Amino acid sequence: MSGFTHFDAAGRAAMVDVSDKDCTVRVAIARGRIVMAPETLARIMDGQVGKGDVLGVARLAGIMAAKRTAELIPLCHPLMLSKVSVELTPAAPDAVEIEAMVKLTGQTGVEMEALTAVTIAALTVYDMCKAADRGMRIEAVRLVHKSGGKSGEFHGA
C-alpha cells in the first residue's frame, strides 16, 4: 500500500487526518474536453439549443460541483474553497475545451475539486445537447497543475 494514504492501521479505507498539516495556499487546475458533431457545436454557439445557454449552465454546474466534491467522492475532505473558476472554450470544428481552477488556503489539496468541476461541466454539456447528439465524447480529463502543500508543484500536459 506504499504511496496510498487512505488506509487505517487495519488496512481499511479511511479519511486522511490532515490536522497536523500546515495551512498553505493550494491551487489545482484541471482540463478536459467534450467532442461533438460540428453541427452540435454550431447550435451551441448560435444559441439554438432548446434548453438554453449551454456554456453558461455548464460553467455554473462545474462551480457548484467543485463545492460539493466531498459529497460525491468518498473520503474527500469537505473544504471551504476560496475561488473556483470554470471556463468553457469552443474549439472548432467539433469540441468544447474545459478548464477549472480551484484555490483555497488550507491543510489539503484541491485536485479532486478541479477534476470534478471539469467532469460535471462536460456532463452538463452532454445532458443539454444529447437530444441532438448522443455520440458526444468526454475526453482527456486530467490534472495539469497543482501547487501548495508538502508534495510541492505538479505540472502536467
From TrEMBL:
Keywords: Lyase, Molybdenum cofactor biosynthesis. The active site is at residue 127. InterPro entries: MoaC (IPR023045), MoaC_bact/euk (IPR047594), MoaC_sf (IPR036522), MoCo_biosynth_MoaA/MoaC (IPR050105), Mopterin_CF_biosynth-C_dom (IPR002820). Pathway: Cofactor biosynthesis; molybdopterin biosynthesis. CDD domains: MoaC_PE. Residues 15-149 form the Molybdopterin cofactor biosynthesis C (MoaC) domain. Substrate binds at residues 75-77, 112-113. Coiled coil: none annotated. GO terms for biological process: Mo-molybdopterin cofactor biosynthetic process. It catalyses: (8S)-3',8-cyclo-7,8-dihydroguanosine 5'-triphosphate = cyclic pyranopterin phosphate + diphosphate. Its EC number is 4.6.1.17. SUPFAM superfamilies: Molybdenum cofactor biosynthesis protein C, MoaC. GO terms for molecular function: cyclic pyranopterin monophosphate synthase activity. Homohexamer; trimer of dimers. Catalyzes the conversion of (8S)-3',8-cyclo-7,8-dihydroguanosine 5'-triphosphate to cyclic pyranopterin monophosphate (cPMP). Belongs to the MoaC family. This is Cyclic pyranopterin monophosphate synthase.
